[in-house]
What we know:
Blueprint: H1 2-15, E1 20-28, E2 37-46, E3 56-62, E4 65-70, E5 80-84, E6 93-94, E7 100-109, E8 117-124
Amino acid sequence: MLILFSFLLASSFECFAQQLEVRDFNYKPDKIVKGSSVLLSFSIYNGGKDLPANAFKMECTINGNLVSLDDDTNSLLKNEKQRYSKQPGKFHWEVQNEKELVVEIILTPKVGYLGKTAFKRIIPVE
C-alpha cells in the first residue's frame, strides 16, 4: 500500500510539472530534395514561472544525429520565447538519399519543477 501511495504521489507531482513548448517550427527550403541544405528554426516558449539560466538542456536531432545542442541556456521569463537557428550561411543537414527527415527536439530539465518536453516532426524529401 505504501508503494502504491508513493507512486501516486510522485505521479501527481509529474502532472503539475511546468512544461516548455516548442513553437514556430519551420525549415528551409520549403521543398526539400536530394542535395538540399536544410536550415531549421524554432522557439522555446515558457508559459510558466520565470526560469533561471541553465534550467534545461536543448537537443535537436535529424534522423538520430545531433545537429544542435544548448547545454548552457539563458534565463527564460514567463510568457517569453527563446529562438533557435543557425548563423546566416550555415545549415543543420545536407540531404543525401533520405526519403524523410525525422526532426526531434528534446528539452531536458535541470531543475526539479520542470518537466521534459519532446517534439517530433517528419519532413518528406521529394
